[in-house]
Backbone:
């Protein structure tokens, strides 16, 4: 009997590994990347208060003046996966000098969009994307201030692509806390973009399902 269980778990492990590999290849394909592209919102219809992030921002190690950082080396690979996730979550946005760091911040984000507009396993992990969307939306006032039309369009399109990825894959996220992060990100996008009010409705329906389960 134990021998049969071992065989079962062996094939189950192979199946899980194979599914993860197929998903990674599919997510990295041009076809999938194009499927995330949809209508560009005309504008942000309101700017949420950035200090809503204060209660969840714990990255004091990123307390620095962005204006003193070289954007060209800002995204040099971090020492470990967790540090890379922390930086790519953008929660540190709430800790920067909001008066003087706008232009440099735009360059940092622009380089990020050039490097990571397509799926990359750790940087596009559901929790990291959720935090990134929340951080970007709550800090949109400083991010877009005096930005070019091209930058604003790429920035908004990036938010939409990432929220579309979350909507497509929320059903695969089993972790309750990460699921709540996804719902928060979707809710915010639905509130600030009239063209994507549907995101808010999706988040509410998914939240109702979670409540029933727990």
Residues:
């Amino acid at each position: 009997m134990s021998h049969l269980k071992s065989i079962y778990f062996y094939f189950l492990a192979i199946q899980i590994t194979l599914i993860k590999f197929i998903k990674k290849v599919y997510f990295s394909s041009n076809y999938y990347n194009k499927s995330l592209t949809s209508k560009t919102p005309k504008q942000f219809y309101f700017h949420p208060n950035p200090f809503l992030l204060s209660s969840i921002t714990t990255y004091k190690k990123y307390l620095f003046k962005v204006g003193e950082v070289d954007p060209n080396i800002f995204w040099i690979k971090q020492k470990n996966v967790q540090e890379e996730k922390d930086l790519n979550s953008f929660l540190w946005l709430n800790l920067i000098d909001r008066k003087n760091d706008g232009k440099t911040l735009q360059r940092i984000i622009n380089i990020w969009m050039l490097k990571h507009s397509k799926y990359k396993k750790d940087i596009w992990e559901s929790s990291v994307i959720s935090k990134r969307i929340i951080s970007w939306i709550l800090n949109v006032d400083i991010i877009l201030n005096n930005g070019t039309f091209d930058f604003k369009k790429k920035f908004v399109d990036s938010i939409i692509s990432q929220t579309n990825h979350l909507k497509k894959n929320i059903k695969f996220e089993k972790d309750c806390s990460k699921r709540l992060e996804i719902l928060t990100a979707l809710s915010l996008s639905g509130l600030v973009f009239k063209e994507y009010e549907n995101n808010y409705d999706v988040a509410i329906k998914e939240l109702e399902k979670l409540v029933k389960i727990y």
